Amino acid sequence: MARKLAVSLISLALAACAVTPQRPLNAEALRQGDxxxxxxxxxxxxxGGVWWIEREGQSxxxxxxxxxxxxxxxxxxxxxxxxxxxxxxxxxxxxLVQLLREQGKLEIDAPLQRYLPGCGDESWRGISxxxxxxxxxxxxxxxxxxxxxxxxxSGPNGALSQACSQKLRAAPGAQFVYSDISFxxxxxxxxxxxxxPLDQQARQLxxxxxxxxxxxxxxxxxGLPVSRIAPTEKLADGEILRGVxxxxxxxxMGGVAGHAGLFTTSSDLARYARMLLAGGLLPDxxxxxxxxxxxxxxxxQSPPELKEKxxxxxxxxxxxxxxxxxxxxxxxxxxxxxTGCAFWLDPGSRSFTILLANRVHQGGPTNTLPLYEQLGxxxxxxxxxxAEAVVAPR
Length: 394
Description:
394 residues; alpha+beta; two-stranded antiparallel ribbon; disordered N terminus
């Protein structure tokens, strides 16, 4: 116990030396971040976006480029609502799992088949909710549109049937494979255990208490103006997706799913980030999530024999950890979204960085992964981190 306490005190001392929260954000790092985003726009890798970096109440946030390119150009602003794609996993699904756990309605290490009886074959018996949350269930990354009989599935029931028919690629716990199917199943578990649709639970249990007024599924059905929503892809039939989820599987489910479907703004995500960095507390001091829940979300929970480290939702140290950059420590955590989104938080420096963009609207192949890493490094520099602050996850 004494040794653990000593190690903890040393870690705190190192963090205190590496970060200087009393100083303003590093202006040169912010300037370089602005330039990096503009360079990506100039290279036609994204139409525009919003970048937000914050540490201990000091923030830098602005919009860049265009919200829309066609049918007519529209300038992006900070009120723009973006399709956040897989950020849904860590902003909606993972925290709802923790809220239900706190209520005693589910257990993280319980088998999936307790909550979805008949889902999967005999090989699925070992899959727990922990496996789903850490992408170690052995499930494939995604699933096709056709059922075994050749019919095209649709709706939540069709998704359940298709997901539960998948063959495992590895034994549960043996391999890390990033899987949308895992979070599709978690969304369906939340609906059954919470006895309400996923989007309703998200509004009532997450967005309303956090004051995330511009966040949710199916924004057009909830009164948000289409003019504020960044469009995404132009489909083969000419339809431009705007306020309709980009992810095709979520679209077949009706726009509400555990893996994708969230629309949000940078300011709303900043509210969520502040709560996590405050250990689950709201600005007025009320508790939103327990400290245990925040730890489960953000500290390594993967099988210890795997090199890839995930919390019960958040990415920590995997091939997908590009937004961590070169300076944020491996005790930081975050996630990305296919549409052009990156979200990373560092408890040590009490800082976070958010990028929301709609790169898929640009048309043609685009790649914003290098920008995620660049902005992560610059955000850490802006927050005062130095190379010696980088430590391994515990």
